[in-house]
């Protein structure tokens, strides 16, 4: 089966409509859809629309994730707050919590908001971006279902517990370090399974402490608890695995102990009878208003100078490129916009088809629905531009050669075909 590039707005609208159909209020469905699509836009496809069905949609259908977004502020000061999210969707709750932290920082210099009984919130860097965009230093993290062991152990105790930091700069993008505290996170393993590739040695150990590179075995083993993702630094102490383990623990404590959320084994989401239950976890969101320390302009210039000086480091090989955090995501965004969207692989196409059929969202037509090629008529030709007319019955808005959607006509140079 072929992979196709689908425009972001179509994926975002589809995700939103799926969520509305299963009972999520439109304004909250729009937030989840935006954050899933933003993951794809940033090149973090492991947390993009590919996660809609296996995580959020399926959990709602199993009755272990609430569609209503309900929360209580159980404790609050001028600079802090504790939110109980009652098993609501993690994305809208987290967006609300981070905005509260930013508002407090804008008023009092610093703001920190923590959540308990929340659920999987996707990419941590979305929320830190909110802080950077509003002139703050942002930090956030979340605990997650156990999949990494403490250094010296083989039992999964900690989640891949992402930790993100962002701040504004005078570069074209905000600095945004947004990653798991393990070498790889589960989504990356799923990607290796789809691509039928072995995972790199050093990412995973089995319950005997032996390395494992079979991606499918790792994925199954993560669910059964027989395989573990290693913390940053890897196995043992030699390469500093205890540092990644330490950072994952910091995230666990900041996510769970301030908010009194569940932690470690309680996040397996397994009921006493062995069936799947809710995975109610904790998050923390922190914002510091730059203007409480220095002017925003000075801060941006100094942060930008640090990035520019880092890029001047003598390189190991002339062809190597030095990046700073946030730069690849910014480039991925512009590149994907230029190419017309994100690649949807066959496994993801199947998931989209299943949700579309179950929810009757037949107004969405995708290129993989097409059965045969049909040439289309070019009505106007200019340098690098062809305007085309679709034949009757064609699957709309799809130009086969570029595997991309186009508008009423085909506004790019290609030998135009559509399918029906
Ligand atoms: N919600 C959860 O439970 C959960 C758990 C784990 C991960 N995640 C999310 O998954 C996403 C991917 O995580 P990951 O661990 O695979 O990230 P990753 O390994 O792809 O690292 C991404 C980060 O590293 C930076 N980076 C990449 N290459 C760089 C280079 N050469 N030089 C400098 N910086 C560079 C990027 O700018 C980005 O900040 C993140 O958005 C994370 O928040 C979520």
Which structural traits does this protein have?
globular; L-malate dehydrogenase (NAD+) activity; Mal/L-sulfo/L-lacto_DH-like_sf; disordered C terminus; single chain; binds nicotinamide-adenine-dinucleotide; Wheat Germ Agglutinin (Isolectin 2), domain 1; Malate dehydrogenase; Malate/L-lactate_DH-like; EC 1.1.1.37; Hypothetical Oxidoreductase Yiak, Chain: A, domain 1; 4 domains; 7-stranded mixed β-sheet
Structural write-up:
The model is unreliable at 396-420 (pLDDT under 50). This protein folds into four domains: 1-61 and 313-368, Hypothetical Oxidoreductase Yiak, Chain: A, domain 1 (Orthogonal Bundle); 72-182 and 233-304, Ribosomal Protein S8, Chain: A, domain 1 (2-Layer Sandwich), CATH 3.30.1370; 184-229, Wheat Germ Agglutinin (Isolectin 2), domain 1; 370-419, no CATH class. It has helices spanning 8-21, 26-41, 52-61, 90-108, 124-133, 186-194, 215-224, 241-256, 296-310, 327-339, 346-359, and strands at 4-6, 72-76, 80-84, 110-118, 136-142, 163-167, 175-179, 204-206, 227-229, 281-289, 342-344, 373-375, 377-382, 385-389, 398-399, 404-405, 417-419. The protein is built from eleven helices and 17 strands. The relative contact order is 0.14. Helices cover 35% and strands 19% of the residues. α1 (8-21) packs antiparallel against α2 and α4 (90-108) runs parallel beside α5 (124-133). It is of the alpha+beta class and 420 residues long. It is globular and about 60 Å long. The strands form six sheets. It has a seven-stranded mixed β-sheet with strand order 2-3-4-10-5-6-7, sandwiched between helices. The chain has a two-stranded antiparallel ribbon with strand order 1-11. Nicotinamide-adenine-dinucleotide binds at residues 44, 46-47, 120-125, 142, 144, 159-160, 162, 164, 176-180, 185, 188, 323-326, 328-329.
């Amino acid at each position: 089966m072929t992979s196709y590039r689908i425009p972001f707005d179509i994926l975002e609208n589809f995700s939103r409509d799926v969520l509305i159909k299963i009972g999520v209020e439109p304004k909250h469905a729009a937030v989840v859809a935006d954050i899933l699509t933003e993951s794809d836009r940033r090149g973090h496809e492991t947390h993009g629309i590919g996660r809609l069905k296996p995580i959020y949609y399926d959990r709602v259908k199993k009755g272990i994730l609430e569609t209503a977004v309900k929360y209580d502020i159980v404790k609050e000061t001028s600079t802090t707050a504790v939110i109980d999210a009652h098993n609501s969707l993690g994305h809208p709750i987290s967006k609300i919590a981070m905005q509260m932290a930013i508002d407090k920082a804008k008023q009092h210099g610093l703001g920190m908001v923590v959540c308990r009984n929340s659920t999987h919130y996707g990419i941590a860097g979305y929320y830190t971006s909110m802080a950077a965009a509003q002139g703050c230093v942002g930090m956030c993290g979340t605990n997650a279902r156990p999949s990494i062991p403490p250094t010296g152990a083989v039992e999964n105790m900690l989640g891949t517990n992402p930790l993100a930091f962002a701040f504004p700069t005078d570069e074209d993008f905000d600095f945004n370090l947004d990653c798991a505290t393990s070498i790889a996170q589960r989504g990356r393993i799923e990607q290796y399974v789809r691509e039928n590739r072995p995972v790199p040695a050093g990412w995973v150990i089995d319950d005997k402490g032996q390395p494992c590179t079979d991606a499918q075995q790792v994925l199954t083993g993560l669910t059964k608890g027989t395989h573990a993702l290693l913390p940053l630094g890897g196995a043992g102490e030699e390469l500093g695995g205890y540092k990644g383990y330490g950072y994952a623990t910091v995230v666990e404590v900041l996510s769970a102990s301030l908010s009194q959320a569940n932690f470690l084994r309680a996040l397996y989401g397994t009921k006493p009878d062995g069936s799947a239950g809710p995975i109610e976890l904790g998050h923390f969101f922190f914002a510091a208003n730059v203007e409480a320390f220095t002017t925003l302009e000075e801060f941006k210039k100094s942060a930008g100078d640090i990035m520019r000086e880092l890029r001047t480091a003598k390189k190991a090989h002339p062809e190597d490129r030095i990046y700073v955090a946030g730069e690849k995501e910014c480039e991925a965004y512009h590149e994907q916009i230029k190419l017309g969207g994100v690649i949807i692989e066959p496994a993801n196409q199947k998931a989209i088809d299943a949700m579309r059929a179950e929810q009757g969202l037949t107004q969405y037509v995708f290129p993989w629905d097409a059965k045969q090629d049909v040439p289309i008529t070019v009505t106007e030709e200019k340098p690098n531009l062809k305007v085309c007319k679709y034949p009757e019955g064609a699957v709309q808005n799809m130009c086969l050669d570029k595997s991309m959607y186009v508008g009423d006509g085909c506004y790019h140079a290609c030998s135009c075909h559509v399918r029906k």
